[in-house]
Amino acid sequence: MPSPPKDQPLWTPTHPGHTSIDRYRQHVNRRFSLHLRTSRDLHSWSVQQAQDFWIDLYTYLDLRPPLPPDVAVAYDDKLPMSAIPPFFPGLHRFNYAENALFANPDPNAVALVGWREGLDLCHDEGEVVRWSEFRERVRVVASALRRGLGVRKGDRVAALVATSVWAVVLFHACAAVGAVFTCISPELGEEGVLARLRQVEAKVLFVDGWTRWKGKVEGTGGKVRRVLERLRPRPRAFVIPVGEEQVGWWEESKERGGLPLISPIADFLALASIRDALVFESTSFNDPLMICYTSGTTGQPKCIVHRHGIILQLKKISAVHNATTPRDVVLQYSSTSWVVFYIMCGYFACGAKTIVYNGSPLYPDPRFLLRLVEKFSVTYFGTSPRYLLEVEMAGGISPREALNLSSLRIVYTTGATLSPAQYRWFYHTAFPPHVHLCNTAGGTDTATSLIAADPSAPLYAGEMQIYGLGMDVDIADPETGESIAGTGQAGEMVVRKAFPSMPCFFWGDEGGRKYWEAYFERFAEKGLDVWAQHDWVSMNPITGGLVMHGRSDGVLNPSGIRFGSSEIYSLIEAPPFTASITNTLCIGRRRPHDVDEDVFLFIVMKPPHRFTPTLRNAIKSTIRNALSPRHVPRFIVPVPDVPVTINGKKVESAVKEVMAGKEVKVSQTVVNPEAIEYFKRFRNWEGEEEVVKAKL
Fold first, then answer.
1. Which pLDDT tens digit goes with each residue over 18-73?
2. Structural domain includes residue 137
3. Which CATH number characterizes residue 200's domain?
4. Can you tell me the distance from the alpha carbon of 87 to that of 51, in angstroms, rounded to the nearest whole number?
5. Which pLDDT score, from 0 to 100, does residue 695 have?
């Protein structure tokens, strides 16, 4: 059982009782004659009375069209969850774009600011697009798609583009047309692009003419031509210049079948008509909107199809949990290959001014994004725990002393776990104390936060705050599937009731077998029809806070002691070790002939530091004292690099399979695949290290 928090809360609400989630709770109390006192009371009601909640939330968020007055149920709760019950099935004129494009009532307010590497913080203002201009750009693109290319409801439109104004325009224009949008970050390799585009068979492809990353500008022409030559059917392709390039490689495009293989974007825009109004296709709440992809680090990426109705979830998080309004300025760093790009669009759909950044978050140094926060008076900053760790390891003057960060009210992190040490660094050293730091958990699969922010409650080091409203999240015993949330033990994170951002289906998954295997197979043998998120989580029964321990498929289990890799990361990717260590990877090795699992902790050293027996002993001692002797890895080994995806996530599963003796086909979402190859040497490694003998 966890002990009481050692520290006082690191953060408490500035205006208790007057936050966005308080206002919604008070609204629910008035409408349903209830006396809910806290956000957790509100969450309990939202899952116990799920039909009332989803119907009320739809109206509260002022979505269009209004629900018919006789709507009594949001979905058929008699259907099993694995049947993917449609939400609001009678709602046939619901369009995502129509619910996003008019979010800000001021047509002259700034909607988007496009920023990219190479611009000058002192003299440039970026690409500024006002709401009226944004709607006009969407109208033009929608007109060109419909009139010039014959794009219709259900056709796929792909974009090989970075986070930019164009990316946001294309997404909303495709939604308006009823086309299914899919976006891939342009730095992904040729095979990775093909693995995605071959599955979805896009009718049109938009591509960035150049990529910008860590000061390097490279043309995409060779890769794009090779991709198009290998695609069947071949989409019409249009190139978007990035920056002020006057002449591009696409000007030399060869003709195929009477049409250019690749055309400049000006040719596409010329297909639009000034006479075409901005109109929205009559899609339903459940019609496909966009396709995201699993990382596919050890195989073909799955094509996850999300529906128009995800805007209900996106606005729930941005408006109710995170208080986003048209007065906010949002900077969410994300690759377009990551679902977080669409999460960012959810904040945009609340009318917020949104900064879209094309480039490396660490160039020319880790504080660059914070200088953007200062320049644009950002109120919401979305980033990753790894980014914050890079800022911390860079050292120097505290960010809050070097920069004016007073505009910030919330810093939102996802993609990994924030360690308790990072929470303390954030408040004690780095950021203004009024800022609400949120570490959240969700996924490409859910397109929403399963664990979200609670602006009305205190925040404790190392803990996430609350389950997302309406999300019947639970912690299940890994053997029985029964709830163990109140025990403080770690278990499988599951969702026990349907929610409106469940994927419609996986593209190409005839019969839905892959979908069922991904989420519902886990506890099917126990007779349970529940969504398994494959995360390992526990709840502190004293604070109610939630602690993520890593992926459940990567849970470490030496001698029957189950724990997550993030428990190790939180100790070693923290001071004082970050002075000499840049990254770590904690993996369990169990080969077919092994009777037990050996835990390896791999260490990447920061030059000019060297790995020493003293450092190894300090690591062992820290883990032993903070956790237990049984948590100490058997082997602690320096390695040159740790494999990561293009979204910055550690690739644990592929390394684990390689070390178990399996041959793994590595996806091009892994930015440094050679790092995985390196770990083959540890298949038979017994090392020179002393085996840690834990007292049982």
1. 999 999 999 999 999 999 999 999 999 999 999 999 999 999 999 999 999 899 99
2. yes
3. 3.40.50.980
4. 10
5. 29
HEC states along 131-194?
HHHHHHHHHHHHHHHHHHHCCCCCCEEEEECCCCHHHHHHHHHHHHHCCEEEECCCCCCHHHHH
Q: Tokens 């030559």 correspond to what residue?
A: 229
Indicate whether 568 pLDDT > 60: yes
Mean pLDDT across the chain: 91
- Contacts of 383-386 with C-beta under 8 Å, sequence gap 24+, read 383/332, 383/333, 383/411, 383/412, 383/413, 384/333, 384/413, 384/414, 384/415, 384/416, 384/648, 385/413, 385/415, 385/416, 385/417, 385/418, 385/419, 385/422, 385/439, 386/415, 386/416, 386/648
The answer to whether residue 306 is domain-embedded is no
- The total domain count for the chain is 2
Instruction: Name the pLDDT band for 596 (thresholds 50, 70, 90).
Output: confident
Question: 311 Cβ partners below 8 Å, 6+ apart?
Answer: 63, 96, 99, 100, 346, 349
| Residues 493/546, Cβ–Cβ less than 8 Å | no
CB atoms within 10 A of CB 525: 8
E strand or H helix at 314: helix 310-315
Backbone angles phi, psi at 191, to 5 degrees: -65, -35
Residue 230: burial class (beta carbons within 10 Å; 0-12, 13-18, 19+): middle
CATH of the domain at 562: 3.30.300.30
Domain boundary among 234, 261, 293: 293
Q: What is the pLDDT of residue 565?
A: 86
Scan for tokens 């774009």, then name that residue: 97
Choose among 428, 430, 390: nearest CA to 411: 430
* pLDDT value at residue 259: 54
What separation, in Å, do the N-terminal and C-terminal C-alpha atoms of the chain show?
Answer: 18
Contact 279, 176 (CB under 8 A): yes
Residue given tokens 């060109």 in the structure block: 144
pLDDT at 691: 34
Residue at 579 is within a domain: yes
Residue 635 has pLDDT above 50, yes or no: yes
Burial label, 490 (beta-carbon count in 10 A; 0-12, 13-18, 19+): buried
Which residue, of 293, 322, 347, is where some domain finishes? Answer: 293
Let me know if residue 442 belongs to a domain.
no
Instruction: Give the closest residue to 95 by CA, choosing from 170, 174, 165, 159.
Output: 174
For the stretch 357-410, pLDDT in tens is: 999 999 999 999 999 999 999 999 999 988 999 999 998 999 999 999 999 999
Q: What is the pLDDT of residue 514?
A: 93
User: What is the per-residue pLDDT for 189?
Assistant: 83
Supply 414's token pair: 């996802």
pLDDT value for 560: 65
* Structure tokens that stand for 570 in this block: 């939180």
Average pLDDT over residues 324-352: 96
The domain of 572 spans 556-682
Q: Which residue has the tokens 């043309």?
A: 219
Dist CA 11 CA 147 (whole Å)? 54
Residue 275 has pLDDT above 90, yes or no: yes
Integer Cα distance of 578 and 458 in angstroms: 28
Amino acid, res. 563: F
CB 507 within 8 A of CB 200: yes
pTM confidence score: 0.88
Structure tokens at 627: 């956790």
Rg (CA), the chain: 25
Check pLDDT > 90 for residue 234.
Answer: yes
Q: Do the Cβ atoms of 49 and 29 come closer than 8 Å?
A: no
Query: By C-alpha distance, which of 388, 458, 455, 465 is closest to 425?
Result: 388
